[in-house]
Write the structure tokens for this entry.
Amino acid sequence: SPVLVLLVWELLAAVGVLRSNYVPAPSQLGPHLIELLAGGELWRHLSVTLYRLGLSFIFALIPAVLLGLSLGMSRTARLALEPILTSLYAIPKIALLPLVMLVLGVNERTLIFTSTLTSFVQMTVSTMAGVLAVDRVVLEAGKNYGATGWRLFRYVLFPSALPDIFTGMRIGLGLTLVLVIAVELTAAQEGLGAFLWTAGQTFSARNLSSAFIVLGVVGVALTYGLERIGNWLMPWRERSSAAMFL
């Protein structure tokens, strides 16, 4: 499908449907992208974005999973905190950037914190939903085989909720990338978002398209990489999927 998209793109540019001043053809864009990468400018912006993305995702992941597990297992905690999570979930996190800037100032901490919020809420909700979706029959079966307390959590509850946790991680990672780019567009001097903003202000269509391609490749690589990790940690999921088709 990517090859087909490139062929159609090139054809539309060749017949004049797409104007090269706004959407350069792949044959023009390829050499320019290689030039940007060889010159090091695009690598510099990409490395800054990946650094912010990694920190934001890690800072969100651990507390989100712990909180989601706690909310799923404790009805009292769920009743107390779920309304707050629901309200935060509905707020566009980029809208909180002015408030965060007012409290923390315009610095790297502001960018990381704002980018962390979206994935934190998403992964917390997904983890909680995964725990609540565990089949009660499975839990009772585990208890009948002697799994109680930590053993019940370790061998029954957590593995059963893990697919939903990884689904939340995949969605959270994508949302974190979106927020990182959005924040860089607004309040950063380096990063792919800042590169996009500069390209837009200088009407550089080739730089814009090059940045979009790099972002697309990064998104695909991160998504499939996280999916591979999930398949490695949850081999039973692949076996279950194969059994459904047999």
Remarks:
- The first helix runs from residue 2 to 14.
- The chain has a mean pLDDT of 82.
